[in-house]
Request: fold
Amino acid sequence: MNLVSPSILSCDFLNIEPDLKNFESMKDIWMHLDIMDGHFVPNLTFGPPIIKLLCSKFQIPMDAHLMVTNPKWHIEEMKDYGLHNITFHLEAVDNSLELVRLAKQSYPSVGISIKPKTEVSALSLELLKEIDLVLVMSVEPGFGGQGFIDNSLEKIKELDSIRKEKSLGFQIQVDGGVNAENAKIIRSAGADNLVAGSFIFKNLPQDYEKSVQLLRS
Ligand code: DX5
Ligand code: ZN
Reply:
């Protein structure tokens, strides 16, 4: 898998529809929606009404990254929107397996995210068997434009070797500080899905496709 997930955190919010339309013709794209509640992370973005509109406007698989204290509420609230993937943070819940099972009833793909200081060993084998995706945060969640934390590579490798050893099917997504310089090494470590905000949206719209290709090559 060689997915790229542009994070709309860095898009042109005053021209969001034409801005995101640029990705509809590209293959293997997920649109990454960073949902922040001003509590789990200090920053605040957007919530269900905006997500619902985005899901109805674009022919692109929508990928929700919940950086919220109460992900169960969002998972229940947004279950009929047509989101492709929903990811919540391991650190936000007491019983992650229970919430994964609930989310699996409504979403085609369900992921769990770990923050930079959370070890891979915090993800139980039981959990890894049931989820579709692990999101490795390679920056502290909350803001775009930060630098990639290098020890994330070890976590990606560790997850990849568990996946191989146990013949599991989850994909590995990496989020934060991804750019053309580090994309190859992140993929070589085992990542299948690279989230990128500032690296893509710092360009003019006519160069978005080129920047996506740079993350794949
Ligand atoms: C940060 C978000 C990221 C962010 C990445 O908390 O989860 O998705 O948009 O931005 P860049 O690619 O600029 O690091
Ligand atoms: Zn994100």
